[in-house]
Design brief:
globular, alpha/beta, 7-stranded mixed β-sheet
């Protein structure tokens, strides 16, 4: 993303947040002023802080998807939550604000290990090896100062997930951007998601990240498990009683 587009995206999100806080009418497609998010001050305050720190890249709609799903899966208090693809930590910190007593596991190269791994030409059109290399583990950790039961796994997934082999999960957020990493995330986490738990992924509906959709569609091919599209680019999959794959 060019510097100009990045700046435009940042200020659009700031304006969108302002319209919610002031309860101004808006012509925006998502029409947030008629949505319950406009009354969720705890969410808006945290989103405002994280977005202002430029550590949260997701839109208000996407951020609220995570917030609400994390909150709604809180009944599974004995199952952990995880995020693979942490980058600067904003979305993980958002979930942390509503996780309750659940342990949070965060997996990423954190830049120190080279950023994004190899990509596939034609499948991952907008990313290249080394992208997101400006993430730094110590800076991400600062967002979680004072928070208990938050664990970090720096390095290349899925080898970094070995300590989580015996864990179960009520919510997993994948933000891996590319085909191979997303598929690895599904292979590892889906068998460990509890019944009623959710895997949610960013970029499923993003044409520039076509590898994410390819990974989900291949992994769940032939299974009677719907992929539920959420705004803006998220997809969510709920673990059925049968266990699925």
């Amino acid at each position: 993303m060019s510097r100009l587009r990045t700046q435009a995206s940042y200020w659009f999100k700031r304006f969108e947040l302002l319209t919610l806080r002031k309860e101004w009418p808006t012509l925006m497609v998502r029409n947030h002023e008629g949505h319950s998010v406009a009354k969720d001050r705890e969410f808006l305050d945290l989103y405002d802080r994280l977005h202002g720190q430029r550590v949260l890249l997701q839109t208000i709609s996407e951020a609220y998807n995570l917030w609400d799903l994390c909150r709604s899966t809180g009944e599974y208090s004995n199952a952990d939550i995880a995020e693979a693809g942490v980058y600067k930590g904003g979305s993980a910190r958002l979930m942390c604000g509503v996780r309750g007593s659940r342990t949070l596991h965060l997996l990423d190269t954190f830049g120190d290990h080279g950023g994004m791994p190899d990509t596939l030409t034609g499948i991952d059109p907008i990313h290249r090896k080394g992208d997101f290399g400006d993430s730094r583990l110590e800076r991400v950790k600062q967002l979680f100062s004072g928070e208990k039961n938050v664990h970090f796994y720096p390095g290349f997934f899925p080898s970094t997930a070995t300590p989580l082999t015996n864990c179960t999960f009520s919510l997993v957020h994948l933000d891996m951007d590319i085909y191979r990493s997303t598929l690895d995330g599904l292979i590892f986490f889906w068998p460990r998601v509890v019944t009623g738990g959710v895997i949610i992924s960013h970029d499923y509906s993003c044409l520039g990240n076509a590898g994410v959709k390819k990974a989900f569609d291949e992994f769940f091919a032939g299974q009677k498990i719907p992929r539920i599209r959420l705004w803006d680019t998220h997809v969510a999959v709920v673990k059925p009683p049968s266990g699925g794959l």
